[in-house]
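Why do we bother with holo predictions? Because pocket geometry can differ from the apo form. Keep that in mind while you read this record for magnesium ion.
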Amino acid sequence: KEMSSAQLRQTFLDFWKSKGHDVEPSASLIPKDDPTLLWINSGVATLKKYFDGTVIPKNPRITNAQKSIRTNDIENVGKTARHQTFFEMLGNFSVGDYFKKEVIPWAWELLTDPKWFGFDPERLYMTVYPKDTETYQLWQDVGVKKDHIVLAEDNFWDIGGGPSGPDSEIFYDRGQKYNNVAEDDPENYPGGENERYLEIWNIVFSEFNHLPDGRYVEQPHKNIDTGMGLERVLSIFQDAPTNFETDLFLPMIREAEKLSGKKYGVNKKDDVSFKIIADHARAVTFAIGDGALPSNEGRGYVLRRLIRRAVLNGKKLGIDKPFLFDLVPVVGEIMKSYYPEPLAQKDFISHIIKGEEERFQATLNDGLDILDGRIADLKKAGEKTFPGSDAFKLFDTYGFPLELTVESAADEGLQVDVAGFKAAMQEQKDRARAARKDVNSMGSQNKLLMDIKEESQFTGYDELTTTGAKLT
Ligand code: ATP
Ligand code: MG
Ligand code: MG
Ligand code: MG
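The structure, written out:
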C-alpha cells in the first residue's frame, strides 16, 4: 500500500475518530507547567493533566499526533535505522474509559484491516509482560499466533510512583534483508538488537497504583496510553531501508546534496552525516518555532549542541559556510499540512540558526588559532606527541573535533595521544555521572525523567568518539 506521511498521520487519527476519539492538536515541544521535563518526549507527556485528574477531558477518548524530542537518542541518529531526535508520536488514549479488551482488537484492526494499514499478520510480532496473561490471551483471540508473541520481562511501565502497568510492543518484521545480527545470535528476536524487527508501537496498560511502600494496587480507573512512531511506520509503507528515505526527509537530503555537491547513498559515512543534518534541521526548526533559543543551559544548550553537530557534519560533507538555515523552508514545506508554524516563522527561525552557525564558525577559528600555536610550541620543543589533555580541552571548550586536531597535528608530524584524549573524556563523564547520582537520590526510576538526566550530561559530539552508541 502506498501512503504519504500526511495520509498516514490522517489515517491513524481517522481510525481513532471512528472509535469515538476526539483529536487533540499537537502541543508545543516546550512543556507547560511541567518542570520535570525539558522537552515533550511522547504523546502522553502533554496529556498528563488528564491522567493525573487535574483536568477532566470533555471526552475520555483522545487521539493525537504529537511532535516529540528525545535527546537520549542523539547518538543513535544516522546509526540506527529508526531513531531521530525529533519525531512524531501517534497516540490513542483512554482516560479511565476503555481498556485491554477494547484496545487490542482495535489495534489489530488498524494494523491489519486493508481499509486501514492492511499489514500482513505474518509480519507482526507482539511483546507481552510475562505476568500479563490477559494480554497474552487477547492477542491470541484476535488471531496472533503463539510464535508471534514474545514474553518480555521489561515490558512494565513504572514511573516510580502512581499509575503504572504492563505494556505490549508491536514489531514489524521487515524481512531477512534487514538482518543485522546472525540467525543464531541471542539478540535475534523482536525487541533484540536485530533491526529487522522494527518496533513501531507501544501500548501501555496503566492499571496499578504504585504506592510509596512499594505495593501495586489495582486502580479503580484504568487508562490506555499508546505511542506509534510515524516515521517508522512510514518507512514500511514507503519501503525505505531507514526512516530517512521517506517523504519526511528526502527533500532535506536533496537540498543538502545541492549544498555539499555530494550524493546521498554513495558511502555510509556521508550518509550518516546527511541523516544527522536532516534530523537536526527538523529538530531545531521546530524547537525554535516553539520558542526555544540557543544558549548555554537547559533547552538552549540542547539546541546549540544540535546546531553544532549539524555544522560539523556539514563540514564533513565539505560545506564550509552557514547552510543549516537553508533547510528551514524545506522543513516548513514538508510539514506544513499538519504543522503550519515552521513555514510561517521561517525567516525568524533561519535568522537564529544562521547567527548560531556563524558564531560556531568563529569559535572553531579561535580553536584553530590555539591549536596552531600549541603545535608550533611542541615542534620547537622537539616533541612528537600532541597531548591528549590538550586535544580534549580544544574539544570541550571550542567544540573542536578530535579528527580535526589529529589531522592538523599529523600535517606537522605530530601524533595525537588519542588514549589520553579518551581518558580525559571518561574522567569528565565520570564527574558528570557522580553529579547526576546526587540529583537522582530520591531513587525514583522514571522513564520520562531519563531524558532529562541525559540533557545535563555533556557527551560531546559523539561521532568524534567511539563511545556511547547504545541501541535502546
Ligand atoms: P526504541 O526501543 O526503538 O528506542 P522506545 O521503546 O524507546 O523505542 P517508546 O518509548 O516505546 O520507544 O515510544 C513509542 C514509540 O515511539 C516507539 O515504538 C517508536 O515507534 C517511536 N519512537 C521512540 N523513540 C523514537 C525516536 N528516537 N525516533 C523515532 N521514533 C521513536
Ligand atoms: Mg517502546
Ligand atoms: Mg523499545
Ligand atoms: Mg528508545
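Confidence is low (pLDDT under 50) at residues 439-472.
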